[in-house]
Amino acid sequence: MGLFDKDRKQEEDRIRSENRLPPGQSLTLKFPVLHYGPIPPFTPATWDFRVWGEVEEERKWTWNEFLQLPRTKILMDIHCVTRWSKADTTWEGVSLKTLIDEGFITPKPSATYLMQHAEYGYTTNLPLEVALQDNFLLATHYEGEPLTPDHGYPLRGVIGHIPAQGELVAPYFWKGAKWLRSLEFMTADRRGFWEKAGYNNRADIWKEERFG
Ligand SMILES: Nc1nc2c(c(=O)[nH]1)N[C@H]1C(S)=C(S)[C@@H](COP(=O)(O)O)O[C@H]1N2
Ligand SMILES: [Mo]
């Protein structure tokens, strides 16, 4: 076993002993890249971020405007359905709950689900109440640095498990769309890209809701 494997195993044992490793997962110290299709280019001059659907008023921000929104940092563990987990990842960006609390977005009372729409048509759905939890963020930064293109630059959804907030619903990592371009508020649930392809709609990491 190499030094790296030994470090990994030790760290995995620590995370497991803290009850932070969901069933069927193993810890990685790397940051795997996983997505369907190519990495889209980012053109700041034409990029926008839209909020639409069941909201009192649709909103649209340019990249520069988006960077002026109130910012939030979170530390969480992320869990991919392909069985890797990564502990203590730091994300920074914009919290959907904050946007609503501070009046930037007003969902209609009928809004109950949220669809993330990304470049090239990738989508993923969440109950609105889950997207309003502290473990969902519209992230621009990872570990204090702007996202890299392969991890979703300039903007992605992220969702994971905050160890001190075990009561929050924690879905697998595919429920965060890289290269995010809009949020659609919906009156009823619709399945996103992987959900239509047979992944579990709720995707609870503790219940191993992977497929079907
Ligand atoms: N736009 C887009 N976002 C996506 C995906 C994708 O295919 N396209 N894959 C999802 C899946 S399955 C996972 S596990 C995570 C992986 O994020 P990472 O590459 O930063 O590890 O992105 C999610 N977001
Ligand atoms: Mo995934």
* CATH fold title: Sulfite Oxidase, Chain A, domain 2
Structural Rg: 17 Å
Order of helices and strands: HEEEHEEHEEHEEEEH
- Spans of 5+ residues with little confidence (pLDDT < 50)? none
**What's the name of the CATH homologous superfamily?**
Oxidoreductase, molybdopterin-binding domain
N-to-C span = 37 Å
Percent in strands: 25-35%
Tell me the total number of β-strands: 11
Indicate the overall shape.
Answer: globular
Query: How does the major sheet shape up?
Result: 6 strands, mixed
Quote the average pLDDT: 97
For this structure, what is the CATH class?
Alpha Beta
Q: State the helical fraction.
A: 10-25%
Number of helices: 5
| Structural domains: how many | 1
Which key phrases capture this entry?
212 residues, alpha+beta, Sulfite Oxidase, Chain A, domain 2, six-stranded mixed β-sheet, five-stranded mixed β-sheet, 5 helices, binds the ligand Nc1nc2c(c(=O)[nH]1)N[C@H]1C(S)=C(S)[C@@H](COP(=O)(O)O)O[C@H]1N2, binds molybdenum atom
Describe what this molecule looks like in 3D.
- The chain has a single domain (43-196), classed as Sulfite Oxidase, Chain A, domain 2 (Alpha-Beta Complex).
- Strands 1, 4, 5, 8, 9 and 10 form a six-stranded mixed β-sheet that branches. A five-stranded mixed β-sheet has the order 3-2-11-6-7.
- It has five helices and eleven strands.
- With 212 residues, the protein is of the alpha+beta class.
- The structure holds the ligand Nc1nc2c(c(=O)[nH]1)N[C@H]1C(S)=C(S)[C@@H](COP(=O)(O)O)O[C@H]1N2 and molybdenum atom.
